[in-house]
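User: We ran a pulldown and think these components assemble together. Before we commit to crystallization trials, I'd like a predicted model of the whole complex to look at. Sequences follow.
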Amino acid sequence: MVHVGGDDLVVAREDFDIPVAVRPKRLTKRQRQRRSTLVALSFIAPNFLGFLVFTLGPILFAFALAFMHWDGSNAITFAGLENFWRLFSDRSFITAFWNTLIYTAVSVPATLACSLGLAVLLNQKLRGRNFFRAAMFFPYVASLVAVAVVWNMIFNPEMGPVNMLLYELGIDPKNLPGWAASNSWAMVTVILFGIWKSMGYYMVIYLAGLQGISPELYEAADLDGANGWQKFWYVTLPQLAPTTFFVSVMLTIQSFKVFDQIMLLTEGGPGTSTLVLVYHVYNEAFISWDLGYSSMVALVLFLMVLTVTVVQFRLTRED
Amino acid sequence: MAKPPLTLFGHKVRFKAIAVYALVIAITVVMLLPFAWMLSASLKLDRDVFAFPIEWIPSQPRWRNYVDIWTKIPLALFIYNTTKLTVIVTLLQLFTSSFAAYAFAKLRFAYREVLFLAYIATIAMPWQVYMVPQFLEMRAFGLNNTHLALICLQAFTAFGVFLMRQFYMSIPDELCEAARIDGMNEYQIWFRIMLPLSKPALSTLTIFTFVTTWNDFLGPLIYLTKTELKTVQIGIRMFITQYSTEYGLIMAASIVSLIPVLIVFLALQRFFVEGIASSGLKG
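Assistant: Here's a predicted model for the assembly, 602 residues in total across the polymer chains.
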C-alpha cells in the first residue's frame, strides 16, 4: 500500500520549473515531518479528544473502580479483591450470570436459524421482494420503547390476543402461558421479542453472504441432479460458513449485553427470572450506589465479550 | 409423460411458487402485526383496546387520542428535545468521524497505528461496561441533567471513525496525490474530494446515528431526570403509571415517534442495507 504524506508536496514541486524566488522555502526533513504530523493530528483531534474523555477515560476508570469501594459521594477506598470475592457469594449475580447464559444459548441459535431462513426465502426472485425485505427489517429500526409496550399488550396473560387465541383453540385457561408476568415464561417472552426485533438485521448480513456465492456452484449441483434441499445442505450452508460464524459472534456479544428490552418488558422479573448481568450492573450502580461492585460485575461482562472476541480472532486468522 | 400443467386464468400455476409466496406473506404479517396493532389501538378507547376478536379497523375511530397526547404530556417539547439531540449528534458524528478517518486512511504520521488501535480496542467494548463510570465522570463535570452529556456520549464513537476509514481506504491514494500536486492542502482535499466521494458511507453513518439517537432509551433514562429535558422515548413511558396504563394514548404517541424513523428508513434503506452488508456493522 502506498501512503502519500504531506512531505511529497515539496518533492513534487521540485519537478516544475519554478523561479527560485517563488519556490516554497525548503524545510528540513524534520520540519516537514513535524508539520505533516501536526496537520494529521488536527484532523484527528476533534474526534479523538471527545473519544478520549468520554469513552477511553471511563473505560480505564471502570477497570480501576472494580477494585475500589465507592458510594458516589464519600471518599473512594481501595478494596483489593473484595469485590471479586463477593461475586461468588452474591446470589443475584449468580442468577444473573446463568440467566445471561441461558438467554444467549437459546436466542443465538434461534435468531441464527430464523435470519438464515428469511435470507434464503427472500433471496429468490419474488415480486415485491424489496417490500418484504424492508418489512422484515423494520422492527430493527423501530423504537424499542414503543414496540415493547405493544408486545406486552399482545402477550398480556389475561386480555392479550395471543392468549385469547390460544383459549379459543381449546387450551385450558389454567395452562395458558403467563408470558412476561410468570416466572417460567418471562425468559421465553424476552427471547421471542429479541428474535422478532433483530432477525431482519442478520437477514441482511446473510443476504450479502448469499449473493457472494458463485452461481456456478449451483449449476454444477444441478448437473449432478441435486434437489433444492441438497443444494441448500451441500452448497449454500458450507459456503455461508464464514457469514454464520460472524453472525454468531455478533449475536453472542449482543446477547451477553442484553438489557434495554428486558428492562422494558419484564424489569428483570418476575422475581429474578429475567435478571441478566447488565441489569445487575444497573441495579448495583443506580439503585444501590455500590459503584465499585457494579464495576466488578461489568468487568465480568467485559471478560465474557473479550473471550468471544479473542476466539473469533484466533479462528478467523487460521482460515 | 408429465402431467399437463394446471392453469388458472390462462396462467400456469406453480404450487411451489404459491407456497413460497404464502410463506413470505405469512411471515411479513407476523412481523408487521405489532405495528398494525399499534395503529389500531391508537384509535381506540382504553376499554376497547383488548376487545376480542380484534377489531382491526375501529368502527368509531377515536381521533381524540391524537389530540390528547400533546396536552397530557409535553410531547411537543419532548419531540423538540429529541430532534435537537439527534441533529446535533448526527452532525458532530459525521464531521468528526470523517475528519479523523481521513488522517487515519490517507496521512502518514507518528503513532498513527497506536491511536487507531485505541479506537479498535474499544469498538467491541459494550457501552454497558463503562456506562456507570461515564455517568460519574459527566456528573463530576456538572453535565448531569443536561443535553450536552448525551451529545458528548454519542457524538465521538469509534464506530463512526472505523466506518469512514474503511471507506476512505478504498479510495485510491493517487487521487489525493494528484490534488496535492495541484496545490490543495489536506483540508481542501478532505472537503472537496473525499467528502463528495464518500456519500454512501456518510449516508450509512447518518442513518445509524439518527436511528440510534432517536430511539435511545437508556442514555436519557440515566441522564435526564428533569421533565423539560426528556426525550420522546422517555415521554412515551409517562403514560404508564404505577396504577394504570393509558393504552390508546401510548399507542398514539408511539405512532408519532415512529414517523421520523419510518421516513428516514424508507428514504435511505438502500444505504442501510448496503452499509450492513459491506461491513456487518454496529456490534
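Chain A touches chain B through 96 residues (CB under 8 Å). That may be worth checking against your pulldown data before setting up trials.

User: Thanks, that helps.
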